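Chapter summary example: a protein plus S-adenosylmethionine.
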Amino acid sequence: MDREKMGQQSLFGNETILAANGKRQLKEPFGRLDVEPELRKHLLPYCRLSFGEIWEDPVRGHRVGVLDAIKSDHVERILNGLKASLIVNDPPYNVVVGNANTQTLSKEALSDYMIFSRRWVMNCVRSAAANSHLYVWIGADVRDNFQPLPDFMVMMREFSEFKPRNFITLRNQRGYGTQKNWMWVRQELLHYIQGDPKFTVVYTDIPKILRGYYKDVNGTRTENLERSKSSNIRPGNVWVDLQQVFYRLEENVPGCYAQKPLKAIERILLSSSSEDDIVLDCFAHSGTTLLAGERLGRTVITFDIDPIFAELTIRRLENYRSKGKTGWQCQNPFPEMEKAYDTAATTRVS
Ligand SMILES: C[S@@+](CC[C@H](N)C(=O)[O-])C[C@H]1O[C@@H](n2cnc3c(N)ncnc32)[C@H](O)[C@@H]1O
């Protein structure tokens, strides 16, 4: 989960606000869905799924549900006999961000969080193909003994089916912290495998610039750039080339406080799945995994416990298919509600 998307602002309204310098500037049509109970109440009637329901995509067979990752019957029902070659999970982190102590971001006792984690991992073990990848985004609370990252890593030893494969760090551009500390810009991504799944090296857009590793090949001295398969560098397990999602990017989904960059999820899908594979994501939120699967020809089975996030996930796919856009930037994904709130927005802006 991203700590907080940059630039999140007030409840709902038009696409621009009047800044202090008198110029109009972009703003999101509404604030974070986790901290706005009023907003949630207004959006729920526009959601097509209720708790326990599943939507099946008539075009590619993706599935989106409003389900609970810790309920084995829910996970079994949405998979309906299918096995996932790749699971990409981004659960809540059990880390309080700023003053946001809400239903979705709230912190529970570590022991409860570990019961939650054990239960969803168990459901993933049952859902994974014999040769499969499992990726888990997880955080560490420096103000609370770095929980839950180390606890999660140790817990994973109980699941002998999944072996650790890597420990990736994504570097955010913006972070949090104080003037007296290293700025916290990291997001951790654990990589496990079961069996012997295929892995494809995916290169970044970053050109190779360092020279100097010479080697004699068939009597000729060659330099590393001449020998390499690509003129770009391949990502190691520290990813520094991915733009954190914020409200000015096309891929931004207003209201989503924990959206992952599409490019990060696409990198995972490209490296650890093949076309037509089944990809499972038990914590859909803004639907990044679904969109990545759509763009890369994978079938995605995903769900969220919250009907608003499931609705946003489906709308993001539909919006991409109809407009070719990866998100809404500062446009409202629920245009139906705009009319009703025009008056409220005008009052706030003026
Ligand atoms: C960190 S966000 C996932 C972000 C996602 N990767 C993206 O790019 O948009 C976690 C999501 O998990 C959902 N969630 C929390 N508990 C859940 C549960 N028991 N089952 C399913 N989803 C849950 C929350 O509603 C939230 O939308």
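Key point: The first strand starts at residue 16 and ends at 18.
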